[in-house]
């Protein structure tokens, strides 16, 4: 995990510093993958400006998704590619971010979103696609769902399970998810602090 920050991390001894002046995502990403159990940070004057510069150096894909809450106060999660995740997907050409978020949630889970609420946050994650480093920027929204739907995982998207979880029972998710999903859950106060991902 690489943290872009404008101040030194609280537990700096747990991190290794990467110099912002020589940061090249294409090079750094492969190197970070070979050091999976380590945390890294880049100290920069303006994190938003820095991420924009990084995005120009690689392929940027914009996506949108949501954290869906039921009328029973449970939260919707999907199981995709052997990890717990939140429903999200690529924004189509000419589509508004909010429309994409709702569409992706409905398609991936087989539900109907009744209310789109506030934007939670944006997250970034990196992966390799066809040999190239790709930066995915995801816009996350809070959503509401009423009624009992027969959840239907979108199998063609690699989703094998869709489930509602009580806030008190999301421990299995925290043990097998992505740092970006943890960020969303922390922002919405479903969890406090940031658990260490193994």
Task: State the share of residues found in helices, binned by percent.
Answer: 10-25%
- Poorly predicted parts: none
- Integer count of domains: 2
Percent strand equals 35-45%
SSE order, one letter for each helix or strand: EEHEHEEEEHEEEHH
How many beta-strand segments?
Answer: 10
Number of continuous helical runs: 5
Rg, Å, rounded: 17 Å
- Assembly of the depicted chains: single chain
Annotated CATH topology of the largest domain: Nucleoside Triphosphate Pyrophosphohydrolase
- Give the helix/strand class: alpha/beta
The strand order across the widest sheet is: 7-4-9-8
Query: What's the CATH class of the largest domain, please?
Result: Alpha Beta
Q: What kind of sheet is the major sheet? A: 4 strands, mixed
The 3D shape can be described as globular
Mean pLDDT: 90
Family: Belongs to the Nudix hydrolase family.
Protein name: 8-oxo-dGTP pyrophosphatase MutT (NUDIX family)
Keywords: Hydrolase, Magnesium
InterPro entries: Nudix_hydrolase (IPR020476), NUDIX_hydrolase-like_dom_sf (IPR015797), NUDIX_hydrolase_CS (IPR020084), NUDIX_hydrolase_dom (IPR000086)
């Amino acid at each position: 995990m690489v943290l872009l920050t404008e101040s030194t991390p609280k537990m700096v001894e747990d991190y290794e510093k990467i110099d912002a002046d020589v940061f090249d995502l294409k090079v750094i990403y492969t190197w970070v993958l070979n050091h999976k159990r380590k945390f890294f940070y880049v100290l920069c004057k303006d994190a938003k400006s820095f991420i924009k510069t990084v995005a120009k150096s690689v392929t940027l894909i914009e996506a949108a998704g949501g954290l869906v809450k039921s009328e029973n106060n449970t939260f919707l999660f999907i199981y995709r590619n052997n990890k717990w995740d939140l429903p999200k997907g690529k924004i189509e050409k000419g589509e508004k971010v909010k429309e994409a978020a709702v569409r992706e949630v409905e398609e991936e889970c087989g539900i109907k979103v009744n209310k789109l609420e506030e934007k939670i946050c944006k997250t970034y994650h990196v992966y390799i696609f066809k040999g190239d480093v790709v930066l995915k920027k995801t816009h996350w929204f809070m959503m509401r769902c009423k009624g009992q739907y027969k959840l239907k995982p979108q199998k063609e998207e690699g989703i094998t399970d869709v489930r509602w979880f009580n806030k008190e029972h999301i421990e299995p998710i925290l043990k097998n998810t992505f740092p970006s999903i943890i960020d969303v859950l922390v922002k919405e106060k479903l969890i406090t602090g940031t658990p260490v991902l193994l």
